[in-house]
Amino acid sequence: MAFWITSRSQEWVAAAEADDGHFTDAVWASELLKEDLLRWSRWWLGLAAFVLAFAAVPFAGLLPMMLIVEAPSGGGEVLMVLAVTAIAVLVLAAAAVVLWLLHRSGRRLARSLRWWLAVRAGGSPAQGVAGWLAPRAVLFEAEVFVRVLTASLAGLVGIFGLSLIGFSIAQNPTMIVASALWGVLGTACCIGQTGGVMRLVAGLGDADPVWNRMR
């Protein structure tokens, strides 16, 4: 777990999950968890896994369907298709495991960060303009901005894949599995990244005087 959640963050994640923390630790804990959650290494690994999964989908989903629908006559061609499909499925499965581990660890970090930000805001409720500005300015930090960008692009991939399902059913049955896989991949990655960003913004919003008055 040292990569997914660094050893420095483990203590603060455990404290948040046990609902056991003090205001005097909130600033340090929240900054540490934010740094861990937004590490560039996490983003690059997620991007690489997403690209590999996206590239593997046509081979893992399209080739088997072509084999079923079009039924090639040559035995050598069938073996080649099966071999390529097997490799693609392994790559897709490995990428999915990496993405799942990133999501699971990121969810724990984001929830813990949200908890510590609430403790931090509760200890110093009158933050004025700084409290209003923080949840808005954080979206323009490079580590957050690229996650919003890639979440949006992943969402477009999801929409593209899901929209292809209807076309595949009507026009090209060999695309059904690939379309569904693209749709699930893009939608899941979009929701996962967006959820982390929204928890960060919501946590910073606890110190927003305007938002607090509206609530």
Structure description:
The protein has 215 residues and is an all-alpha fold. The chain has one domain (18-214). The protein has 8 helices and no strands. The protein has helices at 7-17, 23-37, 40-70, 75-123, 128-137, 142-170, 176-205, 209-214. The longest helix is centred in the middle third of the chain and has 49 residues, at 75-123. Keywords: Membrane, Transmembrane, Transmembrane helix. The chain crosses the membrane at residues 43-67, 79-102, 144-169, 175-192. This is Glycerophosphoryl diester phosphodiesterase membrane domain-containing protein.
Give descriptors for this structure.
mainly alpha, 0% strand, 8 helices, elongated, 215 residues
Outline the biggest β-sheet: none
Number of separate structural domains: 1
Helix count, DSSP H or I runs of 4 or more residues: 8
| Mean pLDDT over the full residue set | 89
Report how far the terminal alpha carbons are from each other. 38 Å
- Derived structural class: mainly alpha
User: Stretches where pLDDT falls below 50 for ≥5 residues?
Assistant: none
Task: Give the topology string: H per helix, E per strand.
Answer: HHHHHHHH
Q: What value does the Rg take, in angstroms?
A: 22 Å
Overall spatial form: elongated
Portion in helices: over 70%
β-strand percent reads under 5%
